[in-house]
Specification:
Helix content is 36%, strand content 17%. By secondary structure, it is of the alpha/beta class.
């Protein structure tokens, strides 16, 4: 499934990025940086972390995108890091729980 399909089906906002044709391998929900270090390449990371370090880790792990739930607005430094690292940032007013459930219904599973 591509990021574009996920954005369309979940009605997500694209805050940054132009790689919406990228394939998403799995989803990962966590607010602990260390947890995401074990995530697969091309994972979609749902997190409440809206700071530069989260974007830097997502870039290092070659994440498909970072999805900020619950109407969270990223810090300016996160946007800058995402632009430098060519990372797609997405947002939704829905909770992380609802987003994870909807992604699961679409057939996207957790990390393999």
């Amino acid at each position: 499934m591509t990021l574009q399909e996920i954005v369309t089906r979940l009605g997500l906002s694209v805050l940054n990025g132009n790689g919406l044709q990228q394939e998403v391998s799995c989803a990962h929900v966590s607010d602990i940086l260390g947890d995401f270090r074990a995530a697969s390449t091309s994972a979609l990371w749902i997190t409440h972390l809206a700071h530069e370090q989260a974007a830097a880790l997502a870039c290092m792990k070659k994440a498909a995108a970072v999805l900020l739930p619950a109407g969270i607005v990223p810090e300016p430094e996160m946007l800058e890091q995402a632009q430098r690292g060519n990372l797609t940032l997405l947002a939704s007013p829905d909770s992380a729980f609802v987003l994870a459930g909807r992604l699961y219904e679409l057939g996207l599973k957790g990390r393999p």
